[in-house]
Amino acid sequence: MSNTLVVIGAQWGDEGKGKVIDLLTKQAQAVVRFQGGHNAGHTLVINGEKTVLHLIPSGIFNNVKCIIGNGVVLHIPTLLEEIESLGEKGVHLGDNFFISSQCPLILPTHILLDEARERALGNKAIGTTGRGIGPAYEDKVGRRTIHLIDLLDPNKFREKLQNLMEYHNFLLKNLYSSETSEIKEVEELWLSFASKISPFVVDTSLEINDLLSKDKKVLFEGAQGSMLDIDHGTYPFVTSSNTVAGAASTGSGIGPGMLNKILGITKAYTTRVGSGPFPTELDDANGKHLADVGVEFGATTGRPRRCGWLDLVALRRAIVNNSISHLCLTKLDVLDGLEEINVAVEYKLSDNVFSIMPNLNDHDLEKCEPIYKTFKGWQEQTSGIRSIEELPDQAKHFISSIEKLLSIKISLISTGPDRKDIIILDNLFDD
User: Fold this and answer.
1) 3 state DSSP class of 369
2) How far apart (Å, rounded) are the C-alpha atoms in residues 96 and 83?
3) Which of 157, 182, 197 is the C-terminal boundary of a domain?
């Protein structure tokens, strides 16, 4: 039996991971967030009711252990708001929620720095969510970070907060001519959080390893997408954490040998939020169709997503970087009604042709021209279909062609926003 399954976005994020994780968690005993922060936005639609989660794992609506690993940067006010909002929906965390004592904390000055930097970049801005994620990870690498466990020791917290916020305020004032933050106000507010958060704080590495030693099934939930990885994405237009499957090990405290299957989530087309190369981007009626029908707005920022055709060149890079063993194809229904559907199978740059996204600088990647394979569209409605046999012949041909072009099995197909609108072709927790 396969005891662990890592779920990652195989594009630039917003692939529909939340819904899939919610579904798969029914077969697991625990789900673990292992990187990112409240810049993530995982949308769940259950019986028509929409919920967006930014920090708490998407499996919280199931009776399983939900764990925030050490690789997550934690904004406590957002977490407390989520806990309260879930309580209003009748979802109480009880004994099923755990947070790593080693999570780095996001402070108000991290957010101020994030915003100030984006303003300073002007039209060269990265397009961050402005949630302080990048500065928080910088402090982690710079060995300045305040961990959650520090908050539980008031004296230690005060000392570390003083040092870190003085540093942040110096940068804000002298480098960006921006507003600063009162240290005493932050100190009092954050210390008031300690009693609310302390019941959930544990050594999550030991918690997860204990579960695995008892042959429990554990699902690892990635945030953002593989193409936004700080090392392997379209740098510098990336997030500040490792979004690839390998981060499930470092961001949770289990050894890489304990990771079994890797599920990559991809839309039936491609989207991206913010700046950066996007070879298959569409600025025509087809792009408008994808945006309108797919309701393509960021779950975290509300910004409209850029839309384009499915990019197999980028997907092959994601498969290589993540050892993806299975794929989930989401938003198939958004393609309903299109006369023709294009899929990028190669890039052309000058005299060079690439079948896998090359490691180029962002300027050269912008110049890559996609080479398309064209499929006949379908006029029938696929929304809500839950059996592969019921799909139109053209849709089935589209799916099988993608499998052949990528040499990888599509195990799940989402045909609508509700958790029930999905075609299940494989039980991923079985061998």
Assistant:
1) strand
2) 13
3) 197
Q: Looking at the structure, do residues 283 and 301 belong to the same domain, yes or no?
A: yes
Tell me if 278 is assigned to some domain: yes
Tokens 């961990």 map to which residue? 147
Q: In what order do the strands lie in the sheet with 30-33?
A: 201-202, 97-100, 65-68, 30-33, 218-221, 4-9, 261-267, 326-330, 409-414, 422-424
Pick from 52, 53, 65: nearest CA to 25 = 65
Whether 343 contacts 303, CB under 8 Å: no
Q: List, for residues 85-94, the tens digit of each pLDDT value.
A: 888 888 888 7
Q: How confident is the model at residue 1 (pLDDT cuts 50, 70, 90)?
A: very low
Domain of 278, CATH number, reads 3.90.170.10
> What CATH number corresponds to the domain at position 27?
3.40.440.10
Interval 275-295 mean pLDDT: 95
Rounded Cα distance, 238 and 243, in Å: 10
The dihedral over CA atoms of 193, 195, 199, 201, expressed in degrees to the nearest 10, equals 50
Q: Are residues 294 and 178 in the same domain?
A: no
Catalytic residue list:
14, 42
Instruction: Write out pLDDT tens, residues 349-386.
Output: 999 999 999 988 888 999 999 999 999 999 999 999 99
What pLDDT sits at residue 125?
Answer: 74
What's the pLDDT score for residue 42? Answer: 67
Is the same domain home to 290 and 417? yes
Structural domain harbouring 85: 4-100+200-258
Q: Nearest to residue 243, comparing CAs of 257, 261, 225, 218?
A: 225
Average of per-residue pLDDT across 277-298 = 93
pTM, rounded to two decimals: 0.92
